[in-house]
Amino acid sequence: MKNFAYTRPRSLGDATEAAGNDGAQIIAGGTTMVDLMKIGVLAPETLVDITGLGDLEGHAVGTDALQFGALARMSKVADDPAVIEAFPALSEALWKAASPQLRNAATLGGNILQRTRCPYFRDTAYAQCNKRDPGSGCAALDGGKTSHHAILGGSEACVAMYPGDFAQTLVAFDAQVMTRGPGGTRTIPFAELHLLPGDTPHVETVLEPGEIVTAITLPRIPAMANSHYLKARDRESYAFAAASAAVGVEMDGDTVRDVRIGLGGVAATPWRARAAEDALRGGPLNEETAREAGRIAFEEAVPLEGSAYKMPLGADVVAGALLTVKSRIGGE
């Protein structure tokens, strides 16, 4: 690990100023940053520790919205009875991520900005990685193993998969991200926070240098209460998703009034399955329509040889999540 300077600002203004310097990186829980520094993927000159900024901690479940400070810990939010009642999928997504030790340390703001787990990005022995070294090529696309890569949103430059769980609930339910940077504050729709790889996979978000995520908010809607996060993975705990779905449903009798579907484990960014949602709204929710929605969710998938299994698996996960919610609501 390369030597680095360390600073712990006392105010948000000082933090944004320090984070805007060349070679600076923000650290909070450190569960991703320290890993990447150890393996030589990142070598910041300065770490800006924002854990002393108490205003960024805490969370609240209100009648109109849910709000989470960027420094709120994953485990604390997941275990909050108010969160569990208002938005079960969010709690489930957090509990199914990482390990107890990591959930106790990791922050929500850091979680949504975690880097890919693509083995060619995280192993510097592979010279070809456009995300780590722009213009070097993509080892996955050049004959590498692709079983854990994206089938939605990839490009000719990169097929790395976004690895998180929590983000799928945010993209499906219209979350917004509040930030503070050298230019002031702004609110970013979560669906616009992450960038598709295109020709510049090393540019992963719309955040500017020195810009810090301060909070995450979600409008409280009926579909949140009838929600579920389903995750298919190689083992039951401490494994990233091969395919996952965060879904929520609002019924009007036997008719779907509103439905939300976020996909994980299959895309280059947190992914909203809008076409599948449109197919369900205004009709019944049963096994036939749930499976058709799962199929539609992956109509535009572009799998490689090693990742083709994600299409039927992902469709089954979407259908399974929807049917689980329907069983909780009751009815035919």
From TrEMBL:
Lineage: Bacteria, Pseudomonadati, Pseudomonadota, Alphaproteobacteria, Rhodobacterales
Residue ranges of every copy of the FAD-binding PCMH-type domain listed in the record: 1-223
Transmembrane regions listed in the UniProt entry: none
Enzyme class: oxidoreductase
Species per Swiss-Prot/TrEMBL record: Profundibacterium mesophilum KAUST100406-0324
InterPro entries recorded: CO_DH_flav_C (IPR005107), CO_DH_flav_C_dom_sf (IPR036683), Diverse_Substr_Oxidored (IPR051312), FAD-bd_PCMH (IPR016166), FAD-bd_PCMH-like_sf (IPR036318), FAD-bd_PCMH_sub1 (IPR016167), FAD-bd_PCMH_sub2 (IPR016169), Mopterin_DH_FAD-bd (IPR002346)
Any one GO molecular-function label of the UniProt entry: FAD binding
Keyword list, A-Z: FAD, Flavoprotein, Oxidoreductase
Assigned EC number: 1.17.1.4
Protein name according to UniProt: Xanthine dehydrogenase YagS FAD-binding subunit
Superkingdom to which the source organism belongs: Bacteria
